[in-house]
Protein backbone atom coordinates (compact mmCIF):
# COMPACT_ATOMS: atom_id res chain seq x y z
CA UNK A 1 0.00 0.00 0.00
CA UNK A 2 1.38 3.43 -0.95
CA UNK A 3 1.81 6.00 1.83
CA UNK A 4 -0.92 8.64 1.87
CA UNK A 5 -2.00 11.57 3.98
CA UNK A 6 -5.46 12.45 2.59
CA UNK A 7 -8.72 10.89 1.32
CA UNK A 8 -8.89 9.34 -2.12
CA UNK A 9 -9.96 11.58 -4.99
CA UNK A 10 -8.96 10.52 -8.50
CA UNK A 11 -10.65 11.43 -11.74
CA UNK A 12 -10.08 8.93 -14.55
CA UNK A 13 -10.31 11.14 -17.61
CA UNK A 14 -9.23 11.26 -21.23
CA UNK A 15 -5.71 10.33 -22.24
CA UNK A 16 -3.10 13.07 -22.35
CA UNK A 17 -3.04 13.18 -26.15
CA UNK A 18 -6.76 13.96 -26.30
CA UNK A 19 -6.42 16.61 -23.59
CA UNK A 20 -3.54 18.35 -25.35
CA UNK A 21 -5.39 18.20 -28.70
CA UNK A 22 -8.49 19.70 -27.12
CA UNK A 23 -6.54 22.56 -25.55
CA UNK A 24 -4.71 23.26 -28.81
CA UNK A 25 -8.05 23.34 -30.66
CA UNK A 26 -9.53 25.68 -28.02
CA UNK A 27 -6.38 27.80 -28.17
CA UNK A 28 -6.53 28.13 -31.98
CA UNK A 29 -10.22 29.06 -32.04
CA UNK A 30 -9.87 31.46 -29.11
CA UNK A 31 -7.03 33.42 -30.67
CA UNK A 32 -9.28 34.49 -33.53
CA UNK A 33 -11.75 35.96 -31.05
CA UNK A 34 -9.22 36.90 -28.31
CA UNK A 35 -10.38 35.62 -24.94
CA UNK A 36 -9.42 37.37 -21.67
CA UNK A 37 -7.97 36.67 -18.27
CA UNK A 38 -9.18 38.84 -15.44
CA UNK A 39 -10.24 42.44 -15.84
CA UNK A 40 -13.83 43.21 -14.82
CA UNK A 41 -14.60 46.34 -16.85
CA UNK A 42 -14.34 46.54 -20.64
CA UNK A 43 -14.72 49.33 -23.17
CA UNK A 44 -15.66 49.10 -26.83
CA UNK A 45 -15.08 51.76 -29.46
CA UNK A 46 -18.79 52.51 -29.63
CA UNK A 47 -19.09 53.57 -26.00
CA UNK A 48 -15.67 55.20 -25.51
CA UNK A 49 -16.90 58.78 -25.88
CA UNK A 50 -19.05 58.72 -22.76
CA UNK A 51 -16.77 56.85 -20.35
CA UNK A 52 -14.06 58.26 -18.10
CA UNK A 53 -11.15 56.05 -19.08
CA UNK A 54 -7.84 55.53 -17.28
CA UNK A 55 -4.41 56.14 -18.79
CA UNK A 56 -2.63 54.41 -15.90
CA UNK A 57 -1.48 50.80 -15.95
CA UNK A 58 -4.00 48.46 -14.35
CA UNK A 59 -2.50 46.31 -11.62
CA UNK A 60 -4.34 42.99 -11.09
CA UNK A 61 -4.13 40.48 -8.21
CA UNK A 62 -5.79 37.07 -8.28
CA UNK A 63 -5.95 34.21 -5.76
CA UNK A 64 -7.01 30.90 -7.30
CA UNK A 65 -7.78 27.51 -5.76
CA UNK A 66 -7.54 24.20 -7.66
CA UNK A 67 -8.94 20.78 -6.86
CA UNK A 68 -9.07 17.32 -8.44
CA UNK A 69 -8.30 16.23 -11.97
CA UNK A 70 -5.36 13.83 -11.53
CA UNK A 71 -4.76 12.16 -14.93
CA UNK A 72 -3.40 8.60 -14.88
CA UNK A 73 -2.90 7.55 -18.49
CA UNK A 74 -0.36 4.77 -17.92
CA UNK A 75 0.45 2.06 -15.41
CA UNK A 76 3.26 4.00 -13.70
CA UNK A 77 0.99 6.99 -13.10
CA UNK A 78 -1.83 4.75 -11.90
CA UNK A 79 0.47 3.09 -9.37
CA UNK A 80 2.19 6.26 -8.13
CA UNK A 81 -0.93 8.48 -8.00
CA UNK A 82 -3.49 5.85 -7.03
CA UNK A 83 -4.47 7.51 -3.74
CA UNK A 84 -3.74 11.10 -4.70
CA UNK A 85 -5.88 13.97 -3.40
CA UNK A 86 -4.84 17.09 -5.32
CA UNK A 87 -5.23 20.66 -4.00
CA UNK A 88 -3.37 23.82 -5.02
CA UNK A 89 -3.33 27.60 -4.78
CA UNK A 90 -2.09 30.19 -7.28
CA UNK A 91 -1.23 33.80 -6.47
CA UNK A 92 -1.00 35.88 -9.65
CA UNK A 93 0.11 39.46 -10.09
CA UNK A 94 -0.27 41.08 -13.50
CA UNK A 95 -0.26 44.34 -15.45
CA UNK A 96 -2.64 45.11 -18.30
CA UNK A 97 -0.87 46.37 -21.43
CA UNK A 98 -1.63 49.98 -22.40
CA UNK A 99 -3.36 51.59 -25.36
CA UNK A 100 -0.89 52.85 -27.96
CA UNK A 101 1.92 50.33 -27.32
CA UNK A 102 2.90 47.25 -29.30
CA UNK A 103 0.41 46.56 -32.14
CA UNK A 104 -0.03 43.03 -30.76
CA UNK A 105 -1.44 44.46 -27.53
CA UNK A 106 -4.33 45.90 -29.55
CA UNK A 107 -4.73 42.71 -31.62
CA UNK A 108 -5.15 40.69 -28.41
CA UNK A 109 -7.38 43.27 -26.69
CA UNK A 110 -4.62 44.47 -24.35
CA UNK A 111 -3.66 41.25 -22.52
CA UNK A 112 -2.41 40.92 -18.96
CA UNK A 113 1.22 39.88 -18.47
CA UNK A 114 2.46 38.83 -15.06
CA UNK A 115 4.06 36.36 -12.68
CA UNK A 116 2.55 33.69 -10.47
CA UNK A 117 3.37 31.51 -7.49
CA UNK A 118 1.88 27.99 -7.35
CA UNK A 119 1.78 25.70 -4.30
CA UNK A 120 0.18 22.24 -4.22
CA UNK A 121 -0.16 18.90 -2.48
CA UNK A 122 -1.07 15.43 -3.71
CA UNK A 123 -1.48 14.06 -0.20
CA UNK A 124 1.33 11.60 -0.92
CA UNK A 125 4.74 11.71 0.76
CA UNK A 126 6.44 9.91 -2.11
CA UNK A 127 5.33 12.58 -4.64
CA UNK A 128 5.98 15.67 -2.52
CA UNK A 129 4.29 19.07 -2.23
CA UNK A 130 5.37 20.89 -5.42
CA UNK A 131 5.57 24.62 -5.93
CA UNK A 132 6.24 26.62 -9.10
CA UNK A 133 7.21 30.14 -10.14
CA UNK A 134 6.01 31.11 -13.60
CA UNK A 135 5.22 33.84 -16.07
CA UNK A 136 1.84 34.07 -17.76
CA UNK A 137 -0.13 35.91 -20.43
CA UNK A 138 -3.92 36.23 -20.47
CA UNK A 139 -5.98 37.69 -23.29
CA UNK A 140 -9.47 39.34 -23.30
CA UNK A 141 -12.41 38.44 -25.59
CA UNK A 142 -14.77 41.12 -26.95
CA UNK A 143 -14.13 43.73 -24.22
CA UNK A 144 -17.18 45.83 -23.27
CA UNK A 145 -17.95 48.34 -20.56
CA UNK A 146 -20.43 47.38 -17.80
CA UNK A 147 -20.39 43.70 -18.72
CA UNK A 148 -20.66 41.65 -15.54
CA UNK A 149 -19.63 38.35 -17.14
CA UNK A 150 -16.32 37.92 -18.97
CA UNK A 151 -14.22 34.99 -20.13
CA UNK A 152 -10.52 34.19 -20.46
CA UNK A 153 -7.77 31.80 -21.34
CA UNK A 154 -4.14 31.89 -20.24
CA UNK A 155 -0.77 30.38 -21.07
CA UNK A 156 1.88 29.91 -18.35
CA UNK A 157 5.43 28.58 -18.29
CA UNK A 158 7.78 28.23 -15.32
CA UNK A 159 9.94 26.06 -13.10
CA UNK A 160 8.76 23.88 -10.24
CA UNK A 161 10.41 22.40 -7.16
CA UNK A 162 9.83 20.39 -3.97
CA UNK A 163 9.04 17.12 -5.72
CA UNK A 164 10.21 13.99 -3.91
CA UNK A 165 12.05 12.24 -6.77
CA UNK A 166 12.35 8.54 -7.41
CA UNK A 167 15.10 6.69 -5.58
CA UNK A 168 15.46 2.92 -5.71
CA UNK A 169 16.52 2.83 -2.06
CA UNK A 170 14.87 5.87 -0.44
CA UNK A 171 11.73 6.53 -2.53
CA UNK A 172 10.76 3.55 -4.73
CA UNK A 173 7.05 4.47 -4.81
CA UNK A 174 7.53 7.51 -7.08
CA UNK A 175 7.70 5.88 -10.52
CA UNK A 176 6.84 8.99 -12.53
CA UNK A 177 9.45 11.70 -11.92
CA UNK A 178 13.16 11.60 -11.19
CA UNK A 179 14.03 15.20 -10.28
CA UNK A 180 13.12 17.71 -7.58
CA UNK A 181 12.90 20.57 -10.09
CA UNK A 182 10.83 20.30 -13.27
CA UNK A 183 9.28 22.37 -16.04
CA UNK A 184 5.78 23.67 -15.27
CA UNK A 185 3.36 24.18 -18.21
CA UNK A 186 -0.16 25.52 -17.74
CA UNK A 187 -3.15 26.25 -19.98
CA UNK A 188 -6.38 27.52 -18.49
CA UNK A 189 -9.80 28.97 -19.18
CA UNK A 190 -11.90 31.05 -16.81
CA UNK A 191 -15.27 32.80 -16.51
CA UNK A 192 -15.57 35.76 -14.12
CA UNK A 193 -18.44 37.71 -12.56
CA UNK A 194 -18.01 41.33 -11.40
CA UNK A 195 -19.09 41.96 -7.80
CA UNK A 196 -17.95 45.57 -7.53
CA UNK A 197 -15.58 48.11 -9.07
CA UNK A 198 -12.65 46.36 -7.40
CA UNK A 199 -13.63 42.69 -6.99
CA UNK A 200 -14.80 39.76 -9.06
CA UNK A 201 -15.13 36.01 -8.60
CA UNK A 202 -14.49 33.32 -11.18
CA UNK A 203 -14.37 29.61 -12.01
CA UNK A 204 -12.60 27.62 -14.69
CA UNK A 205 -10.63 24.64 -15.88
CA UNK A 206 -6.86 24.22 -16.13
CA UNK A 207 -4.34 21.79 -17.58
CA UNK A 208 -0.90 21.36 -15.93
CA UNK A 209 2.09 19.34 -17.04
CA UNK A 210 5.26 18.66 -15.03
CA UNK A 211 8.31 17.17 -16.77
CA UNK A 212 12.11 17.25 -16.72
CA UNK A 213 12.44 16.49 -20.44
CA UNK A 214 14.19 13.14 -19.81
CA UNK A 215 17.09 14.94 -18.13
CA UNK A 216 16.82 12.26 -15.46
CA UNK A 217 14.66 9.13 -15.45
CA UNK A 218 11.96 8.20 -14.68
CA UNK A 219 10.12 10.94 -16.55
CA UNK A 220 6.59 9.73 -17.11
CA UNK A 221 5.55 13.21 -15.98
CA UNK A 222 2.50 14.43 -14.08
CA UNK A 223 -0.62 15.72 -15.83
CA UNK A 224 -3.54 17.45 -14.12
CA UNK A 225 -6.94 18.76 -15.22
CA UNK A 226 -8.28 20.55 -12.11
CA UNK A 227 -11.32 22.75 -11.61
CA UNK A 228 -10.52 26.25 -10.35
CA UNK A 229 -12.19 29.00 -8.30
CA UNK A 230 -10.76 32.51 -8.04
CA UNK A 231 -11.10 35.93 -6.44
CA UNK A 232 -9.66 38.93 -8.31
CA UNK A 233 -8.81 42.39 -6.96
CA UNK A 234 -8.18 45.44 -9.20
CA UNK A 235 -6.93 48.48 -7.23
CA UNK A 236 -7.62 50.97 -10.07
CA UNK A 237 -11.40 51.37 -10.27
CA UNK A 238 -11.38 53.51 -13.44
CA UNK A 239 -12.37 51.93 -16.74
CA UNK A 240 -9.50 50.68 -18.85
CA UNK A 241 -9.00 52.16 -22.33
CA UNK A 242 -9.75 49.35 -24.81
CA UNK A 243 -10.21 51.61 -27.85
CA UNK A 244 -8.64 50.42 -31.09
CA UNK A 245 -7.12 52.13 -34.11
CA UNK A 246 -6.89 50.96 -37.71
CA UNK A 247 -4.02 48.51 -38.24
CA UNK A 248 -2.39 48.37 -41.67
CA UNK A 249 -1.76 44.93 -43.25
CA UNK A 250 1.40 43.29 -41.99
CA UNK A 251 4.29 44.51 -44.21
CA UNK A 252 6.31 41.36 -43.51
CA UNK A 253 5.77 38.33 -45.71
CA UNK A 254 8.49 35.67 -46.15
CA UNK A 255 11.22 34.78 -43.64
CA UNK A 256 14.06 32.30 -43.31
CA UNK A 257 14.96 31.09 -39.82
CA UNK A 258 18.21 29.43 -38.74
CA UNK A 259 18.32 27.88 -35.28
CA UNK A 260 20.65 25.87 -33.06
CA UNK A 261 19.55 24.10 -29.87
CA UNK A 262 21.20 21.84 -27.30
CA UNK A 263 20.35 19.81 -24.21
CA UNK A 264 21.04 16.60 -22.31
CA UNK A 265 19.22 13.28 -22.03
CA UNK A 266 19.39 10.19 -19.83
CA UNK A 267 18.61 7.09 -21.87
CA UNK A 268 18.16 4.40 -19.23
CA UNK A 269 17.31 4.29 -15.53
CA UNK A 270 20.19 1.82 -15.01
CA UNK A 271 22.65 4.21 -16.65
CA UNK A 272 22.77 7.64 -14.96
CA UNK A 273 25.00 9.16 -17.63
CA UNK A 274 23.53 12.21 -19.41
CA UNK A 275 24.31 12.51 -23.13
CA UNK A 276 24.70 15.76 -25.05
CA UNK A 277 22.16 16.37 -27.83
CA UNK A 278 21.75 19.21 -30.31
CA UNK A 279 19.50 20.36 -33.14
CA UNK A 280 20.12 22.43 -36.27
CA UNK A 281 17.02 23.75 -38.01
CA UNK A 282 16.41 25.73 -41.22
CA UNK A 283 12.88 26.87 -42.07
CA UNK A 284 11.09 29.08 -44.56
CA UNK A 285 7.85 30.64 -43.32
CA UNK A 286 5.17 33.09 -44.46
CA UNK A 287 3.04 35.42 -42.36
CA UNK A 288 -0.72 34.86 -42.21
CA UNK A 289 -1.73 38.27 -40.92
CA UNK A 290 0.02 39.31 -37.72
CA UNK A 291 -0.63 36.32 -35.46
CA UNK A 292 0.60 33.32 -37.45
CA UNK A 293 3.59 32.16 -39.48
CA UNK A 294 3.46 28.84 -41.35
CA UNK A 295 6.23 27.15 -43.28
CA UNK A 296 8.40 24.17 -44.12
CA UNK A 297 11.97 23.12 -43.42
CA UNK A 298 14.08 20.45 -41.81
CA UNK A 299 15.90 19.51 -38.59
CA UNK A 300 19.16 17.61 -38.13
CA UNK A 301 19.71 16.02 -34.70
CA UNK A 302 23.07 15.09 -33.16
CA UNK A 303 23.33 12.58 -30.29
CA UNK A 304 26.56 11.99 -28.35
CA UNK A 305 25.17 8.65 -27.14
CA UNK A 306 26.35 7.23 -30.47
CA UNK A 307 29.92 7.47 -29.14
CA UNK A 308 29.11 5.01 -26.34
CA UNK A 309 29.63 1.39 -27.48
CA UNK A 310 27.28 0.15 -24.75
CA UNK A 311 24.51 2.22 -26.34
CA UNK A 312 25.28 2.23 -30.08
CA UNK A 313 26.91 -1.20 -30.33
CA UNK A 314 28.46 -1.87 -33.73
CA UNK A 315 27.30 1.54 -34.99
CA UNK A 316 29.55 3.37 -32.50
CA UNK A 317 30.71 6.79 -33.76
CA UNK A 318 29.42 6.21 -37.29
CA UNK A 319 27.78 9.08 -39.16
CA UNK A 320 24.37 7.36 -39.25
CA UNK A 321 24.54 6.75 -35.51
CA UNK A 322 25.54 10.31 -34.64
CA UNK A 323 22.92 12.04 -36.79
CA UNK A 324 19.22 11.73 -37.51
CA UNK A 325 16.54 14.06 -38.84
CA UNK A 326 14.02 14.90 -41.49
CA UNK A 327 11.59 17.49 -42.89
CA UNK A 328 9.08 19.28 -40.69
CA UNK A 329 6.05 21.55 -40.79
CA UNK A 330 6.73 24.92 -39.13
CA UNK A 331 4.28 27.06 -37.14
CA UNK A 332 4.65 30.25 -35.07
CA UNK A 333 1.97 31.94 -33.00
CA UNK A 334 3.05 35.53 -32.31
CA UNK A 335 2.03 37.06 -28.98
CA UNK A 336 3.99 40.31 -29.34
CA UNK A 337 6.46 41.72 -31.84
CA UNK A 338 9.21 39.92 -29.88
CA UNK A 339 7.58 36.96 -28.11
CA UNK A 340 6.11 33.95 -29.90
CA UNK A 341 5.27 30.28 -29.53
CA UNK A 342 7.02 27.93 -31.94
CA UNK A 343 6.34 24.38 -33.08
CA UNK A 344 7.56 21.71 -35.52
CA UNK A 345 5.84 18.51 -36.59
CA UNK A 346 8.38 16.40 -38.45
CA UNK A 347 9.05 13.03 -40.03
CA UNK A 348 12.31 11.12 -39.60
CA UNK A 349 14.04 10.18 -42.86
CA UNK A 350 16.60 8.52 -40.62
CA UNK A 351 16.39 7.71 -36.90
CA UNK A 352 18.19 5.63 -34.28
CA UNK A 353 16.09 3.53 -31.96
CA UNK A 354 19.00 3.05 -29.53
CA UNK A 355 18.71 6.81 -28.95
CA UNK A 356 15.00 6.39 -28.11
CA UNK A 357 13.87 7.74 -31.48
CA UNK A 358 11.22 5.04 -31.49
CA UNK A 359 8.48 6.77 -33.51
CA UNK A 360 8.54 7.92 -37.15
CA UNK A 361 7.22 11.37 -36.20
CA UNK A 362 8.71 13.99 -33.87
CA UNK A 363 7.33 17.13 -32.25
CA UNK A 364 9.08 20.30 -31.04
CA UNK A 365 7.15 22.98 -29.15
CA UNK A 366 8.29 25.95 -27.09
CA UNK A 367 8.66 29.71 -26.78
CA UNK A 368 11.11 32.19 -28.31
CA UNK A 369 11.99 35.84 -27.78
CA UNK A 370 13.86 38.31 -29.98
CA UNK A 371 16.64 39.47 -27.66
CA UNK A 372 18.37 41.80 -30.15
CA UNK A 373 16.97 42.82 -33.54
CA UNK A 374 16.58 39.56 -35.52
CA UNK A 375 18.47 37.34 -33.04
CA UNK A 376 16.27 35.16 -30.82
CA UNK A 377 16.61 32.77 -27.88
CA UNK A 378 14.19 30.34 -26.31
CA UNK A 379 13.41 26.95 -24.84
CA UNK A 380 11.39 24.03 -26.23
CA UNK A 381 10.68 20.35 -25.71
CA UNK A 382 11.32 17.69 -28.35
CA UNK A 383 8.98 14.72 -28.01
CA UNK A 384 7.78 11.49 -29.60
CA UNK A 385 4.04 10.70 -29.38
CA UNK A 386 3.66 12.82 -26.22
CA UNK A 387 6.78 11.41 -24.52
CA UNK A 388 9.57 13.95 -23.94
CA UNK A 389 12.89 13.36 -25.69
CA UNK A 390 14.86 16.30 -24.25
CA UNK A 391 14.63 19.99 -23.35
CA UNK A 392 16.23 22.25 -25.98
CA UNK A 393 17.88 25.60 -25.22
CA UNK A 394 17.63 27.49 -28.50
CA UNK A 395 19.23 30.44 -30.25
CA UNK A 396 19.00 31.61 -33.83
CA UNK A 397 18.55 34.31 -36.46
CA UNK A 398 15.61 35.39 -38.66
CA UNK A 399 16.21 36.70 -42.19
CA UNK A 400 13.44 38.86 -43.68
CA UNK A 401 13.34 37.68 -47.31
CA UNK A 402 10.74 40.00 -48.75
CA UNK A 403 8.41 42.82 -47.73
CA UNK A 404 5.08 43.77 -49.23
CA UNK A 405 5.27 46.68 -51.66
Structural class: mainly beta
Number of helices: 5
At the third CATH level, what is the topology name of the largest domain? Porin
**Kindly, what is the distance between the CA atoms of the first and last residues, rounded to a whole number of angstroms?**
70 Å
Examine the secondary-structure arrangement and name the CATH architecture of the largest domain.
Beta Barrel
Largest sheet: 8 strands, antiparallel, barrel
Number of strands: 20
Rg, nearest Å: 23 Å
Low-confidence stretches: 4-52
Percentage of residues in DSSP E strands:
over 45%
The shape is: flat
Task: Enumerate the strands of the largest sheet in spatial order, edge to edge or round the barrel.
Answer: 2-4-5-6-7-8-9-11
Helix content: under 10%
Mean pLDDT: 85
Order of helices and strands: HEEEHEHEEEEEEEEEEEHHEEEEE
Keywords: Hydrolase
InterPro entries: Lipid-A_deacylase-rel
Organism: Olivibacter oleidegradans
Protein name: Acyloxyacyl hydrolase
Describe the structure.
- There is one protein chain.
- The protein is mostly beta strands and 405 residues long.
- It has 2 domains: 16-240, Porin (Beta Barrel), CATH 2.40.160.20; 252-403, Porin (Beta Barrel).
- Helices cover 9% and strands 51% of the residues.
- β6 (128-140) and β7 form a beta hairpin.
- Keywords: Hydrolase.
Provide keyphrases for this structure.
flat; Porin; 405 residues; 5 helices
Short overview:
This protein folds into 2 domains: 225 residues, Porin; 152 residues, Porin (Beta Barrel), CATH 2.40.160. The chain is 9% helix and 51% strand. The strands form 3 sheets. It has an 8-stranded antiparallel barrel.
Amino acid sequence: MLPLRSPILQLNMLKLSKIVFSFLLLFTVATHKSWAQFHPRYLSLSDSSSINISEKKHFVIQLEHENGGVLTGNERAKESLRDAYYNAFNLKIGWQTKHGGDVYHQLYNYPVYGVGLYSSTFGLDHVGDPYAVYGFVSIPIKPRVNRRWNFNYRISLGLSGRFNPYSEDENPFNLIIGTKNNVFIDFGGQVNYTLSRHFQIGAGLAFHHFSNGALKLPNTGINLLPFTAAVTYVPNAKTFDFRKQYIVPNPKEDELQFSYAFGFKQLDEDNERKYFKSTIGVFWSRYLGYKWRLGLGANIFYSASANDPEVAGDKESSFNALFSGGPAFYIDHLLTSKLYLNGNLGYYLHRNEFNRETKPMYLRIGGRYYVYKDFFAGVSIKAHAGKADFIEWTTGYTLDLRKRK
